[in-house]
Amino acid sequence: MNQIRIVADSSADTLSLEAVSFVSVPLTIRVGEQEYVDDASLDVEQMTARLLHSRERSSTACPSVGEWLAAFGDAEYVICITITSTLSGCHNVANSARQTYEEAHPGRRVYVVDSLSTGPEIRLLLEKVSEGCRRGLEFEALCKELDTYRRHTALLFLLESMHNLANNGRVSRLAASAAGILGIRVLGRASDKGDLEQLARCRGEKKALSAILSQMQQQGYCGGRVRIGHCQNEAGAQALTALLSTAYPQADILAYPSRGLCSFYAERGGLLVGFETA
Ligand code: X90
Fold this sequence. Notes:
By secondary structure, the chain is an alpha/beta fold.
């Protein structure tokens, strides 16, 4: 019955999806000698706490071809969404897995999508595909719907520290330096190229949250879905939710703690906001 399977890497902060066949493929986070696998068993709070006080080297790694293949299982059709290929090897590896899979099983199809984003924006894409699945859409139609939808979603981030991003070569040290200053948060977005684009520096949470709202509006938000992933910042996520629901009382907004990969890079206090645009 489950001939269509949805697959995403763990940057999507999504461990399960209702009433569809879904598999999350974990990235790994290494802190000193310890390796954390970003799956359901990861204690994200414990990992974040350790990172906060640690001076050890830390890094991340994407899944192997074999791990992607295992996730594809024996599905006839697979829709596979990855973190931006500009910042991670995930997408390339998933593509190799697609090639191997399609060669080994003629007739089976894998559609690999480079989200050019991460976290909550991927979550929106996953929700869209799973709704299409539940409506009984066929593979081709699902891929088409996904391609249209992803032109109407965006991602903003608000970070208190960009230490791990800079240490792992995902932003320049200079770009990261502002976020190290006490009380300064960097507001940015996932660029069209799929990397980090800084938009503003904000002093204080209140100003930062209204800057998020006005950026969302500038990018075409008009009351659609919003998904907010936070790293140890329930209060910030709730405050943003309140601000948004005052402006858009009908909006479907959901806030939740990020899983391991996004927590590692967003760091404590970080907010990632995926939303629909016009
Ligand atoms: O392959 C790997 O090891 C994973 C590397 C991922 C690097 C970037 C993760 C970013 C997570 C930080 C703020 C949002 C940035 C959005 C840019 C598209 C979240």
